[in-house]
Amino acid sequence: MNASERGRMVVPGDLLGTAEEFVPGRGTYEHDGRIFAALLGHSSVDPASRSVAVHALHAVPVLDEGDLVIGRVDELKSAMAIVEILAAYPSHRTVPGTPEGTIHVSKVKDGYAENLSDELAAGDLVLARILQSRPSIKLTTAPPTLGVVAARCQRCRGSLELAGPRQELVCPRCGNREHRKISTEFGGRTAPPPG
Asked: What is the mean pLDDT of residues 21-28?
């Protein structure tokens, strides 16, 4: 494989090179001294390690620090929210095993949050960043782009909408007004309404 072939689309069984040229990397296999693609994806060569790899086109998401995720708030405790992680963002690919993460009250917004229930509610969909992925998942919604992206009224379960100059959450069904730590992506294409 030469430099012009880096990043080309490959299918399982495509010849990528020989064992004399490269070390087989992720997404490849070696057979009779030749290296083949094991996945549908894009090939790449790491000149430093002289390895060839295939990066899967439709890979199962693996959560890591710094990644953005969409999650549903399952439960609020006094100092933390328990969030079921639904998908990676922006790919919207489902995360296998529906892992849980936590948002500590100190990580829900910039500044002081006196009461977690003033910022999040059970059933809210949130856009969050992973602060720690192992051994447990810790999340933050502090930056303005992160936070609640879809919410239901705690009184009648209608979908809340942003209204007024203060961008309050209002239920068009019953008129109830609620407060959340709202993402700048609220109501957008980030996530479907909570079900």
From this structure: 92
In this structure, are residues 6 and 44 in contact, taking their beta carbons and an 8 Å threshold? Answer: yes
Q: Give the CATH fold of the 68-178 domain.
A: OB fold (Dihydrolipoamide Acetyltransferase, E2P) (2.40.50)
pLDDT in tens, 122-159: 999 999 999 999 899 999 999 999 999 999 999 999 99
Two structure tokens written together for 72: 């549903």
| pTM (predicted TM-score) | 0.70
DSSP state of 90: T
Closest CA to 39 of 22, 24, 58: 58
Whether 6 and 25 have beta carbons less than 8 Å apart is answered as: no
> How large is the average pLDDT for residues 70-81?
95
Output the pLDDT for position 51. 93
What is the assigned CATH class of domain 3-56? mainly beta
Domain layout of the chain by residue ranges: 3-56, 68-178
CA distance 191 to 195: 11
What is the separation, in whole angstroms, between the first and last Cα of the chain? Answer: 49
Question: H or E stretch including 82?
Answer: strand 80-89
Question: Which pLDDT score, from 0 to 100, does residue 11 have?
Answer: 93
Residue 75: which residues within 8 A CB-CB, separation 6 or more? Answer: 81, 82, 122
**In this structure, is the dihedral angle defined by the CA atoms of residues 182, 144, 64 and 139, taken in order, positive or negative?**
negative
Q: In the chain, count of helices (H) and strands (E)?
A: 0, 16
